[in-house]
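Hi there, hope your week has been kind to you so far. It would help a lot if you went through both lines with me. No rush at all, and the record is pasted right below:

***
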Amino acid sequence: MIDLDIRQLQSFLAVAAELNITRASARLHLSQQTVSTQIQQLERAIGVTLLVRTSRGVLLTPAGEELARGGNAVVADLGDLTDRVRAADRGRLGLLRLACCPYATALFATEVADAMEAAVPGLEVELTTVHTPPEERALLLSGEVDAAFIWLPLGDDRFQHAAVRSDPRMVALSPKHPLAQQESVTLAELTDEPVLRPDIYLSEQNLCHWLADPRPDGTPALRGSVVDKVEDALMMVARGKGVWLAPEPLTRWIPGTAVVWRPVVDAPASELAIVWTDSAPQHLIARLIAEVRTIIGNTEAALV
């Protein structure tokens, strides 16, 4: 039997897809030298030349084209086998692990878990709740969960995602704030309001979206204090120390008691997404996306 290293095959498939070692290396988060070495080792193991370098990248030989056609199926089958072996080791034939935030998607995730178990006989859906998106990211990267519900943008190319819902933006105001007397507000009316920043953001791109920065006229958002938790930000809002922008579902978990929530009519909507890594069970992720979109479609139809 040929001593075939799956990492060498994955590197070759990335190069075959990109026809460029530099782009394939970036996609794999490996150095160009590592990718080149792995392909050379693969060629020696099989005993054929798989690609030739050109001034613009690489071209596949007929042998390389044949390996590219069948290699993706091999990698996918091995991934599925690994998932089944791990599930069997846990005594659960068919397991999907989801992470969610209690303020944002916990009840929604419960409905999704029930729908997935009903749709896939023998499947067990395991829910893990954390308080912030960075905690969800950590669970994904450690392999402790297969997927998570997170608002875009991620600003992190280590993940795949599929948007499943669009949520309008709201602003939390002190009840004493003049804008609290209005039914809605605009970003222009919030120009001079410092936007508080709890430690929940995944990247600068993610932060800018939550702050609506820049504003429609190109001016930067006024950045307020950095605080540890959402609860701390809301306490400061209640004391008139700033405002906080958030997707509408958060207002259902944080009702207008100490703060007042008002829609921001011209703020970009927040896209909720299912997020996963390449190691997740792809067939279950595909079914998860379909079930979530069905649930959301039925919910939105019921509200019309």
